[in-house]
Amino acid sequence: MDLVEISKYIFAAVITIYVLVSFTGATIRDDKKRRAIYATQSTTTFIFHLLGYIILFLNNNNDIKYLILYCFEFGLAFATMVVYDVIYPKSSKLLVNNMIFLMSMGYVFIARLNFDQAVRQFIFACIGIGITFFVPMIIKKFKKMRDLGWIYAAVSFALLLALFFSSRVYGAKINITLGPITIQPSEFVKILFVFFIASMYNKALTWKKLLLTSLAAAAHIVIFIASNDLGAALIFFVAYIMMTFVATRRLVLLLGTTGLGILGALIAAKTVPHVIKRVVAWRDPWSNIYGSGYQIAYALFSIAAGGWFGVGLTRGRPDTIPFVANDMIFAAISEEMGIIVAIGVLFVSLNCLILIMNIASRCNTLFYRLVAVGFGVTYAFQVFLTVGGVLKIIPLTGVTLPFVSYGGSSLIVSLIMFAIINGMYTMRQDSGESSKPDITYRRREPKAEVSNKNETGLNEDMSEYFKKDDFESDISKRKKGLSSEKAGDDRGKTRYYSPEDFKNIDDYNEFDDSKF
User: At what angle do helices 93-113 and 64-87 cross, to 10 degrees?
Assistant: First the structure.
């Protein structure tokens, strides 16, 4: 039994251990108790990455360039862990480790498919990680970003309109070429779009503001549909409806926008030529297996050939699948490393989503909460579109698998998104931030025995509840865990505050129907 054959079982065991410790770590709150989890994650990532490159080295006539590239990639991963540990000790190391693990898997498969692409992917990773070292610091210091809603929209529209001057690539206008560099604007617009929605919903949300935000979001989606970038259109639509639901807590809005989206998709499937081709290829790829159905058919062949443990790294035929390093890398993983490793990738992605949503739930400020939700939904839905297309669950949309697929724009933007989330997590862990109460919504306190109001000096004039000084004093007492006779008298009563009380507080987001 040679190394490639043995490695099939090692890869399956390594990713199984990684998944188990990752989910275990997500249930532990004490960072000191997580140290063994972090060490196990780092060790399994190192084993997976090293074993992959040893096999590539041996199966390419002992070409030393593979070992050189491995050393550079290992150095970048090690530097990333050290920098986050030293500069941002309160960051989510579980999220950082997941990011590095997925990138390491991507390195191995891209190098196996095309060494030149692997070198470029490493350069993109260096650029992206270099940027991310500064992102958490910027997030913590630059608080005005929550007030730049229409600026985000203007920049994103400028990037998207540039697509109309680009050339078509396989029926879609998705790339802008600047000399030797090709940029995919839709990837960078993801960040701007999420920040735009979060900024618009940050303060007092009215029907007028909701309508304007929805029209701007619809304009983004229409531009993507016009450029035949269907994957981006779906991602932006889902991010919009989920952020709107979190901000308004209105189920009717969620169901209504979802229904409109489904109706729009059905109309597009009947009228838009590019969408019609994708749907026909998805419904019956075998009828035109050497035409529009070729990519999905051969992806299914590869997955079926892999079985549980795969045929072995370098022993498959992923080169028969068009754009395998970009859109179909999940099929290559399934073929050469097997279904166990492929499922492991999905579980690591799920673990990332859980961590992101946990961070979102702990954010005191609505703006940061919405940003985290937006990025989490964007990441998760992109994984679903990629894997669902490969498995023929849904039509192919041409989106990449974050951190794993080849693509500079996708990798850099994914790194920035995770860095922003880590920046918010760092703020939440800060003692000053974590002690702030969440005053976004009305509160009802537990009932208690009400003492005689004459003893506390309260009168029948309810305007006392709306005095700013009393409000700030009440908040101060709650933060310090103090109690007073007056606070005790207020228990069991629902307090209502007018928008005037919150005019200087960014956390306020009362959706007031009475204004319109």
Answer: 170
Q: Does 378 score more than 50 pLDDT? A: yes
Task: Express each pLDDT in 405-440 by its tens digit.
Answer: 998 899 999 999 999 998 888 876 654 444 343 333
* Pure H helices in 1-114: 3-26, 35-58, 64-87, 93-113
* Contacts for 289 with CB less than 8 Å, ≥ 6 apart: 297
Extents of the domains making up the chain: 3-429, 439-515
Q: Can you give the pLDDT at residue 170? A: 60
pLDDT value, residue 179: 67
Residue 474 per-residue DSSP state = H
Which pair of tokens denotes residue 194?
Answer: 């999420």
Which residues have C-beta within 8 Å of that of residue 441, sequence separation ≥ 6? 509, 510
Look up residue 343 and give its amino acid. I
DSSP string, 406-470: S-HHHHHHHHHHHHHHHHHHHHHHSHHHHTS---SS--BPPP-PPPPHHHHT--S-GGGGG-HHH
Residue 510: per-residue pLDDT: 40
177 pLDDT above the threshold of 90: no
pLDDT at 147: 82
C-alpha–C-alpha distance, residues 370 and 196, integer Å: 10
Binned at pLDDT 50, 70 and 90, residue 377 comes out as very high
Give 461's contacts (C-beta < 8 A, 6+ positions apart).
none
pLDDT, position 401: 93
User: Dihedral (C-alpha) 327, 335, 308, 42: value to the nearest 10 degrees?
Assistant: -70
Residue 169 three-state SS? strand
446-460 burial code (b ≥16 CB/10 A, e <16): eeeeeeeeeebebee
* Mean pLDDT calculated for residue range 355-367: 88
Q: Any alpha helices (H) in 272-404, and if so which ranges?
A: 273-283, 294-306, 329-362, 366-390
Q: What pTM value is reported for the model?
A: 0.81
Angle made by CA atoms 374, 378, 379, in degrees to the nearest 5: 120
Q: Report which of 379, 449, 345, 91 is spatially closest to residue 235, judged by C-alpha positions.
A: 379
Per-residue pLDDT at 379:
96
Cα-based distances in Å from 130 to 77, 82, 184: 12, 13, 20
Question: Which residues are CB-neighbours of 424 under 8 A, at least 6 positions away?
Answer: 139, 359, 363, 368, 371, 372
Counting every residue written for the chain, the total comes to 516
Q: How far apart are the first and last CA of the chain?
A: 74
Q: What angle do CA 375, 377, 382 make, to 5 degrees?
A: 95
pLDDT band at 234 (very low <50, low <70, confident <90, very high): very high
Tokens matching residue 506: 């960014």
**Pairing of β 181-183 and β 176-178:** antiparallel
- pLDDT value of position 139: 83
